[in-house]
Each structure stands twice: as C-alpha cells, then as structure tokens.
Design a protein that fits this description.
The structure is a single chain. The chain has helices at residues 2-8, 41-46, 234-244, 248-261, and strands spanning 55-77, 83-84, 90-110, 113-133, 137-158, 161-174, 181-197, 200-213, 216-222, 268-277, 281-290, 295-303, 307-317. By secondary structure, it is mainly beta. The protein has one domain (2-317). It has a 10-stranded antiparallel beta barrel with strand order 1-3-4-5-6-7-8-11-12-13. Strand 7 and strand 8 (200-213) form a beta hairpin. The longest helix has 14 residues, at 248-261.
C-alpha cells in the first residue's frame, strides 16, 4: 500500500509566477504625464518621479523544483473505506517539479501600487516519491493543470535604487485532484537600475520568496499511472509479504486495501493527505532588460532550498489619456 502515498504527492503541485514590475523612481526633473493611470500620476510626475507605463501584458515560463513534506496519509482503494496510514508509511523523499506558463495583465493603480491578474497552465507537473517503510518503493507520476490568481506589488525608489514587496494568491486545478490547490507567495526585492548601454536599459535585483500551499489535498489515480515500480509482480509480492508480517490487529486495519490492490485489474487509489512546502523560504536574483519603454525582458533565478527559474517578456502601454484620476 506504500505506493498510494506516492500518488498523494501529485496533490502538491502548485504553480505560480510572480513577475517583477518596474518601480517608480524619484530624483528626476519634473515630468509631464498624459495618462489617466496611475491615480495621481500627473502630480507625482510633476515632482520628478519617473513612472512606468500604466498597463502591462506579460508571458512567463516558470520551472520550480522543490521538496515537499507529507504529515498525514489516508487511502482508499476502489470502494473501500479511507484508512489513515500515517503511522505505517515513512517517506524517504518527496519532490515536485513543475514546468508552467503564466499569462499576466497588470496596472499601476497608484504610483506605489501595481495590481494584476494571471492565468497559469502547468505543462507538466512531475512528482517523485520514495517510501522507506513499510518497504522500499519509488514512483514518478505526472499530470497537467490550469489555474488563475491575482496579486499586488508595493513599490518605491529613488536615484535608481528601488524596493518592492509582492504578494499573490493562485488556485490551480490539477488533472488528478478533486479540488484546486491554493498557493500564496510573498516576495520582497531590492535592486538597482544600472542605466542604459547602447540604448538598452539594465535592471538587477535580489530578494527572497516565501511560499505557502493549501495543506489538505484529495484526489485519485489508477495504479498503472504510478510508473514502472507499480507494474509487474514485485510490488504485489512486497505488499503481501509486508501484510503477512503484520500482527492481526494491523492486518484488520489494512485488509480491505491490500485485497483490492493484490487482485486483478487496474484499481483506483483514492487519497487524502496533509502536506506542506519543506522549506518555505528561498533566495533569488533577477534582471530586467528594457529594449524600449514598452518591451521588457525578464529573468529570475531562485536558489537555496528551492530551485526556480522564471523567464518572461512584458509589453507595457499607456492606455487611457487625459488627466489622472
């Protein structure tokens, strides 16, 4: 039955891409601002604060590789009752890898506040699970998913230096999960605008990211979707040997599960688990290249505890003209 815990790891996938937004920059000559947004934009421009163009559309590719912790495991097979196996299963390693695309639309609502909405498409979410007890077993499972979310960025800067704090929430529906998985990201950054070289603007930053995922996950998966370790007779042999070595009281607890897994056909494993990101915080560095005021290229790399890579292109435009609101 250990294999069921591997399927549970599929629930841990949560993709979210937080793209850096240019910060307002104080310390310039008075600027004329012709757009309705941000609110009070014309007033702060008169005071020498340089503003990014109000509206933006961005497409990002994101890769995330991170370890996961599972604290509770309950499993049912076909029509059996759910059985809590938390005291019987010991995980050696649970790791999640996600390749995803993120489409993001944003607006500088206020000179210091950027708000945005986004849609996510998980091209491939792969979960690798190793179980140490009750017997050694490895499974790799993959699934796609879609999701959406929203967020905001507080930002400010002066003389080329800037600071931002970004927070967003996303909900991603994975193929083999019953309900969407919620994720929250908090990302503080500090950086420097290095100016222009050959007409191209260069911005660099460093920061950190804190991730929290919804703890409770339910779903189901077929046995034959769990990978090579679930195929053939070795798994059934290990399962039966483990079951026969249990005391009668423990055998009674899992008899309904083992009997359905050791039979013919392709059983459906239903799971209910509590999980968390093993290391909520990681560090990151990033850069933005401004080809023009409108077209921007971005890259960000996360490291220590979680590996992540975000590559994106962003198009900014002025939108409505007229006096700021």
């Amino acid at each position: 039955m250990a294999f069921r815990a591997r399927c549970l790891a599929l629930a841990l996938v949560a993709t979210s891409s937080s793209a850096f937004a240019q910060a307002p920059d104080a310390g310039h000559e008075a600027i004329e601002w012709d757009y309705m947004f941000p609110i009070w934009g014309d007033k702060v421009a008169e005071r020498g604060i340089k503003l990014p163009l109000p509206f933006g559309l961005g497409l990002n590719y994101a890769f995330v590789d991170q370890p996961i912790e599972i604290s509770r495991v309950a499993v049912g097979v076909n029509d059996s009752e759910m059985v809590d196996l938390s005291n019987l299963i010991e995980f050696d390693d649970v790791n999640s890898k996600v390749h995803a695309l993120n489409l993001r639309a944003d607006l500088w609502l206020l000179p210091f506040l950027n708000v945005y909405a986004m849609g996510n498409y998980a091209i491939q979410a792969e979960t690798q699970v190793s179980i140490a007890q009750p017997f050694s077993f490895d499974v790799t499972a993959t699934q796609p998913g879609v999701g959406a979310g929203f967020g905001g960025t507080l930002a400010g800067g002066a003389w080329g230096f800037f600071g931002t704090v970004d927070i967003n929430w996303t909900w991603n529906k994975m193929e083999k999960l019953d309900d969407p998985v919620g994720t929250r990201l908090i990302t503080p950054r500090v950086g420097k605008n290095l100016g222009k070289l050959g007409g191209i603007e260069f911005i660099v930053w460093g920061g950190a990211m804190q991730q929290q995922i919804e703890s409770k996950t339910q779903g189901q998966i077929h046995l034959n979707e769990l990978g090579s370790d679930a195929e053939g007779g070795k798994f059934q042999d290990d399962l039966v040997n483990w079951y026969e070595g249990l005391p009668p009281s423990r055998q009674a607890l899992v008899r309904g599960l083992v009997g359905r897994l050791d039979g013919d056909g392709d059983p459906v494993i239903r799971y209910d688990l509590h999980k968390a990101v093993k290391h909520p915080w990681n560090l990151l560095v990033g850069t933005e290249i401004g080809l023009t005021e409108a077209w921007r290229l971005r890259g960000e790399f996360g490291f220590i505890n979680r590996t992540q890579l975000i590559l994106g292109i962003n198009y900014r435009f002025g939108g409505f003209t007229g006096a700021s609101l």
